[in-house]
Amino acid sequence: GEIMTLQVIKDVILRSLALFISYALPSIGVGAFTGVEPLKAASIAGGLAVANVITKLAQAFLKDGQLSKKEVDEIFNKANKGKGGR
């Protein structure tokens, strides 16, 4: 597969931002409902989602010193499915 390139790194950064937003925004309402500050609830939800993905990306990179586009796609797709995505 394609070895880690600048494009793969850019993809990881942009997808991490999108993942953060997709987990953070819904938690604002839940945070407000439960009495947790909305910004804190959003930061925790989004941060945990991104930290989980970054950990999995690091583990994939440690295996062989490479991070392919396919590996990145698989990891992000699993993270999105965990949220109820398709």
What's this, in brief?
With 86 residues, this protein is mostly helical. It has 3 helices and no strands. α1 runs antiparallel to α2 (38-64), α1 (6-34) packs parallel to α3 (69-82) and α2 runs antiparallel to α3 (69-82).
First and last CA, distance: 24 Å
Helical content stands at over 70%
* CA radius of gyration: 14 Å
Count of distinct strands = 0
- Amount of beta strand: under 5%
List the helices and strands and how they pair.
Elements: H1 6-34, H2 38-64, H3 69-82
Structure description:
- With 86 residues, the protein is an all-alpha fold.
- It contains three helices and no strands.
Structural descriptors:
about 90 residues, mainly alpha, elongated
